[in-house]
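Archive transcription. Copying these from loose printouts into the bound notebook so they stop getting lost. Printout 1 of 2:
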Amino acid sequence: MSYENKLNEINLNDKEKKKEFVRDMFNSIYRTYDLLNHILSFGIDIYWRKKSLKNIFLRDTDTCLDLAAGTGDYGIEVYKKFQCNIIGYDIAENSLKVFQEKVKKKNFDETKFTYIVGEAEKLTLQDESINLITIAFGIRNFYDSQQALYEMFRVLKSGGRLLILEFSLPKNKIIQSIYRFYFEKILPLIGRLISKDNSAYKYLPESVKLFEQEKDIVSEMIKAGFREIKVEPYTFGIVKLYSAKKSLE
């Protein structure tokens, strides 16, 4: 069955089916994922990652968990700034292979990088072992974001930080209409031409819409125990940065 047929058949609120679809999809498009991201965001995704780290300070002995790491752009950006330890964690093993290839090509210290195939909802990491968690455009793909946030809180050290970059629907009606036309009509067309997998870029606008309509991620962060939560819109609200801290009282 093609991924497009799977997308048409599944309910994205069905946790098990969503998990299977997301894993298969990203294992399918891993070679063209970076190119498509840069083209479809006009290269602004690179700026978003850099900007999100402006108030973050890590030592080279600290550890960053790049969750839903994909091909590693966020983790690599953190490493370039701090030379700290990076854990790339993703459900799609093919994406992590590309992450590892990038690290080798850039001649980074490979001993600083660890790659784990797994689910955000069941992190195979020790309690209070992480200083920073980064997620770029991945939390909407989790089959249980609340459980994933509980896990993130568990593995973060006291005082540790969480950064989540995620697409959103702009509040300005004109910008939103342009944005939705682009996401719903243009993006799947470009995605099909480049990746030969139309379903991945039909899924993207659908997942963004569902995330906006059905998720109150701030409430989920509070419920998980996070504090000092801030939401910062980037680029007319096309993307939001959710930041929070683990503060044990």
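Printout 2 of 2:
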Amino acid sequence: MSETILNRAEKMDADDFAGAEYLLSGDTVKVVVRLECAYFGARLFVGETAYVDAFNDREPYDHLTHVFYVPRAELTEGMLLTFAALDSAVDGDWCRHTFPFTAQFADAETLLGQYDSRITAERTQAEQIAEGVTYRHLFCTDKNGAPVHAFLLQVDMTRNTVCIGTPADGYESRGVRATVPAMIDAAVRSGQRVLAAVNADFFDMWGDSSPSGLCVKNGRVVANADSARPFIGVKRDGTPVIASLAEKPELLLELYQAAAGLQRILRGGELDEWGPLEPFAYVRHPRTAVGLRPDGTLLCLEVDGRIPDYSNGATLVDLANMLRSFGATDAINLDGGGSSVVYTKGETGYELRTNPADLYRPTEKLIREEYNCILIVERQGR
């Protein structure tokens, strides 16, 4: 199969090949091939061995960055590697590009600059959803002029607060899943005045649907009290907090609401050490993140992606920089991809503001069911 692909591959247009980078991690080299336009079904040939793209095998990612894991022992200085992939414009037309391996490995500081897509808002549409809750649609472009659509909720936490939405507004830790609008409806039926919502934690999509990190709902620890992952939470006194139990285990008894993410992307106003060498950080995806300003204002940011003509997603560097531009000093990355959504309360119901990637799937198109979400609710008894 691999040999057949290589033999019938035509030469790739040199302008389409943006370059290759090599990231050393133990005995493995991450070979990162960067392209100017989309190619699919990528393979990397090292001698007679074919390596399959680590990221484009299951979901429709941007197809501009292709990642391969190669044993360091297989690579020698100057040896020729061949990248082969399907042309996005012609079904079944394989193309290839051959380039030399060089042992000049990129460092973290260089990568942070390279994976800043320089997403810039060209114009903004703003609405006041409720007292103390502002919604913004950011019409952006990246450094290459490609479109990016981002959505920001700015929440005054002295007037409003956060509750964790769950399926049927319940306390099951696994085996349950629901869409964000279904979780909104369940919370409203329980008496919550929900103003807006975004998706929250990563969860076991292929197993029991359990959340990946800590979940606290109404003062009750629902899942993963021993999780080291960072979380966005609200303490029993109403104070919002971004932290982790690995750093502050004493917070567990103080939390009234909490949902976890995967990476701490901002700490004290600076990019945090969330591992810029990891491909998950620098491949552009639909993303959701939450941040806090020093005054306690909550920022919820969603960036649409995987829809090249509409929006091209964000890296974690992009998320951090965008939140920092709105004044956040601390932030975490939440679940993204097809999970990323923003809903706001309107006159007749709750409106989906984003274009979820799962609506553009080549097979089943859907609003994804998830384990939990972050509900922006009006403080009771004001």
